Amino acid sequence: MLKDFTSISKSVEVKKLLRFSTNTKKKSKKVPMDGNTAATYVSYRMSDLAIIYPITPATNMGEYADKWSAEGLKNIFGQELDVTEMQSEGGASGALHGAATSGALTTTYTSSQGLLLMIPNMYKLAGERLPTVFHVASRVVGGQGLSIFCDHSDVMATRQTGFAFMCCANTQEVLDLALICHLATIKTSIPFLNFFDGFRISHEISDIELISDETMKKFVDWDALKYYKQNSLNPEHPEVRGTVQSTEVYFQHLEATNKFYDSCPDQVQDYMDLLAKETGRQYHVFDYHGHPEAEQVIVAMGSGVSPVEEYLDKFPNKKIGLIKVRLFRPWSKKHFHDQLPSTCKRVVVLDRVKEHGSSGEPLFLDVASTLIGTGIDVVGGRYGISGKEFTPAMVEAVYKNSQRKEPRRGFTIGIIDDMTRLSLDYGEPIDCVPEGTTQCVFWGIGGDGTVGANKNAIKIITENTDLHGQGYFVYSAHKSGGVTVSHLRFGPKKITSSYLVTDSNYTAVHYKSYIGKYDLLKTAKYGSTLVLNTDKLTLKELEESLPGSFKQEIAKKNLKLYVIDASEIAQKVGLGERVNMIMQAVFFKLSGVLPVKESMDLLKKAIKKEYLRKGMDIVQKNYNAVDLGIESIIEMNYDQERWSKSEIEKAEKKKDEPWFIENIMRPLLKLEGDKLPVSKLMNGGRMPPGTSKYEKRGFAISVPKWHPENCIQCNLCSLVCPHGVVRPFLLTKEEVENAPQKMQTIKATGLKDKKAELEFLIQVSPYDCTGCTNCTNVCPRDCLPQFPTKREIEEQGKNWEYVTETVPFKLDQFKRNTVKGSQFHQPLFEVSGACAGCGETPAIKLVTQLFGPEIMVANASGCSSVYGGTYPWNPYTNDRDGIGVAWSNSLFEDNAEFGLGMVKSMKHQRSKLKLIVNDVLKNENEHKKEFIDLLKEWLEQYSDLHKSFKVSKKIKKYYKEHFVDLNGDFINNSLDCNVKQIWDRKDMLAQKSQWIIGGDGWAYDIGYGGLDHILASEENLNILVLDTEVYSNTGGQASKSTPRSGVAQFTANGKATGKKDLGLIAMTYGNVYVAYICPQANPNQAVKALKEAGEWPGVSLVISYAPCIAHGIKNGLGRAAEHTKEAVRTGYVHLYRFNPRNFGTNKNPFTIDSKKPKPGIEKFLMKQNRFASLKRSFPEEFEKKQKQLAQDCKNRYESYLSFKEMYGKDLKKK
Ligand SMILES: Cc1ncc(C[n+]2csc(CCOP(=O)(O)OP(=O)(O)O)c2C)c(N)n1
Ligand code: SF4
Ligand code: SF4
Ligand code: SF4
């Protein structure tokens, strides 16, 4: 029997503890950490097992736990936490259920869709009253788009499961309330969910006070724990759980749990009181803050409470207040009433979630039902959705609204809603941060080390002074090379401001190209400090180079201006582009938070700690950077009077750009998207094709320039370019002469038409090139050396637009299905935001060149969905007739099924069109022969991708010439109804090439079940798996494609098991086309395989090996071709094709395209840090597992040989 282990009054144990723990509070040491670390700090110590699946922004929790476990950290029970990564959140919750049922204190970390996949098991855990704590970094559940930022849609979608829900408003609370949850779940046998706002709290760093292991131990109700363990599922005390229940008993069972939920809030409060005695930090189920006689009270939870508290502290005389919700479930009306001032006339409930079509959001409904009959008015509003800022100025607007006689109900704050007019207007920023706080803003670039340096600064300052610190970091959507803005605060009082800096004392601009591009001085306070990294080091040069508007703002705000050429210093000391240490040294010198000498010593200490593992020379380079940084800063005493009257530069003549680019993309590129009103965002998050090319980042240091003299016109450079920005063109002499800039070409060779007089050109887009050097390195004749970007933009920038937009393609000169021929076809995937040199993208680009333009893509979540579909950057584009790639992402886990749905839909709709065409043909005499012939031709080519496309063009042309006007409307309304219908369904005329694209995490793990089902479907579809052998998008966790010994997250001591052979599994169906390719290593084989896959009328699975930053390739991603060739040569990667078309012919269906492996695999593996690092950290594991890996690769080759032989025998029989 499940004993009633809870009681409504304070339990004996808690009372005892309260007595013994009075006034033990000592001032503990401050430790800077983010919310994820704080949650892991507690959950690690309080759990036996962690069963997880990575999802942003919760991923780090699992990673930290795994790392600490590998390092041997013990929990309070004296064991290492056992961390298991599952194949999905569904799997994680199932395993957790099993672990909890059999007596292990088990935790998990998740977010968003991940949490939703756990719902069925959450019901089970609650129904069976099993203790567990889920730690959730709350995040949007994607609707019209995916967002990794915070709202409460995920937790609210699970509030009905029977879990208890705790909400934390800052990092300290994450730590404290996490402990309350772990204690209370043991005590109450109710599962708990501890949540905090994703990114805002999960990733914000602030200094907090820790709780010792002894205290944790002291608080545990050991009897309750013993009871739980002794009553777990065990053959020693056998019972049956998870029963099937009939109508007679189910309802009563459900109601039998009431009293446990009723007593839970008091039990939680007991623990909160206990914690207060120990630490001085008092929490309540609901906490009140504000005027004791408040008339208007806001109710909120999560990080949104901080700006409200700050506002109340700034205006203590206003009769307003705040109720902070901590224990959201079980909701306690009693505790709520206890906190609400009796003077309250109106309550405003702020929800961080939108529930379409409801009478109010979840928190509002709870509060409204609590206040029924009290006469207190309740108003609801929404804020902060998808991480939208919520500031004191907005708080003021909310209070003002609540003071109106007729307040706006169901309002929104933080956006401009010009459609339903629900948004409240708000004023200028109100400075509410604690007095004496120094606020700093740093503008850096992704990968330059600025963010890391700032995290370091917080550590140095908070650990070595009495100051408190906070850091929050804003990143652009690009995988690398995007803008990063660091927001730092330091001060004598605790900082909880959960919004970006609005009044900075210190602003540092690490890249001069940002000047004029972003509103850099928006946050700069009057009289504050501004530091620019620039090569203009004299006043004259600087004055001439800065835009007038920028100078005006500097002068009007009376900024103290400093300059430094940090880029030059970084180059000089051998740190390349990494200016972080130099700019950090400057910060310490100018900000004065610490004495300069002391800060330099601490900085150097931190450098040693951080870089020593990379070698003493790297440490020394950073030391030099710091010393030179300090010496080289120059103050600019500008003429304030003159600068304040600087002539404002004329606005650039507006280019004629598409609506989306002008109205959506441009503001977003300027980081001004928050100002976009609702009316401009009405299309459900859809993007037109080819928007990414408008950004023109121009951020590469150097780009290639074509030296045609030795070029052999192989087009390999174009094939390997991950970004589609170096391409071959065929031009007539006249077209060459008409180029806007000097254009060097050579006579084209190998043309089908020997008489054609065409010139060959390799053109680079210097604005879009990332400088990854893949083209430079692959070129067999060294024709693409790199030169400074600026120069190349000037010399060849305009020619790119000329050749890509105006010069006609000459596509009939080469076969499309060859390396060379394919590259003359426009890539319909270009300028994506992938990392410079990404190994995934060339395969996608090649698919579009071989099968475009009628391509449909179902894309799994992963890197490919981030660089492929982040609003407003669409790298998928269209041909010059406007036809192009139609792309969509459903979820991570269901991509195969999503693609199947697309195929079924297209097939069905096209077959309807076929019926209509056949109907027309039944009365063919009623129509012109030319028209009937076209329809017959269409029927013949119905299933052929390229031929049906050609006919579709002819049919459309015929309609335009005979049946419709320029707008596409019918000229003659009495036209045969079926003929009209063909026009209405013209988008179904061409056959579509269906692609299902995703990474190995999707295909090998979370989506494997669906993928397997689709493999058995017999539909005509193609699957492309981008095999980076890790979850690249979430930071490199192991998948089942990760090879043995590979160091990834969750395999810190090298993966113990071998790589799953997905291709081999698929081949067992016999009717699935399967290939393993690597376009960089063997472009010919890749083209051949993709061609065969496309032609196979059933399911095709093409797995493409993709180098990735996560591999830590020693020579960098720019040498992908050389590196992957070595992978193939040494037998790490095997290339093959399995073509079911060859059954029954004299060709072997299975072809191994790579040669017998040569020795050297061990040497090859050492060129990737994921293998090499194992040798450093776990030498014994390395010895064992690396040998096994080499054997795995050998075995795999052997298995392919026997497979080949098997089919060979079959052939002979035939
Ligand atoms: C249900 C769910 N769980 C987790 C995630 C987080 N997530 C997004 S992409 C990804 C890993 C993708 O790895 P992979 O499929 O190998 O693609 P890659 O990024 O390597 O291209 C994860 C774990 C998610 N989006 N949805
Ligand atoms: S350097 Fe890289 S991005 Fe630039 S053109 Fe060459 S391959 Fe493409
Ligand atoms: S790889 Fe070199 S040789 Fe080949 S087409 Fe490009 S530039 Fe010419
Ligand atoms: S797959 Fe790797 S290299 Fe490509 S974008 Fe993702 S992390 Fe970067």
Automatic annotation (TrEMBL):
Transmembrane segments: none annotated. It comes from the Eukaryota. It holds the Pfam family PFOR_II. The keyword Signal does not apply. InterPro entries: 4Fe4S_Fe-S-bd (IPR017896), 4Fe4S_Fe_S_CS (IPR017900), PFOR_II (IPR033412), Pyruvate:ferred/Flavod_OxRd (IPR050722), Pyrv-flavodox_OxR_EKR_sf (IPR037112), Pyrv-flavodox_OxRtase_EKR (IPR019456), Pyrv/ketoisovalerate_OxRed_cat (IPR019752), Pyrv_Fd/Flavodoxin_OxRdtase_N (IPR002880). Residues 702-731, 760-790 form the 4Fe-4S ferredoxin-type domain. This is Pyruvate-flavodoxin oxidoreductase-related. Keywords: 4Fe-4S, Electron transport, Iron, Iron-sulfur, Metal-binding, Oxidoreductase, Pyruvate, Transport. It comes from Anaeramoeba flamelloides. The lineage of its organism: Eukaryota, Metamonada, Anaeramoebidae, Anaeramoeba.
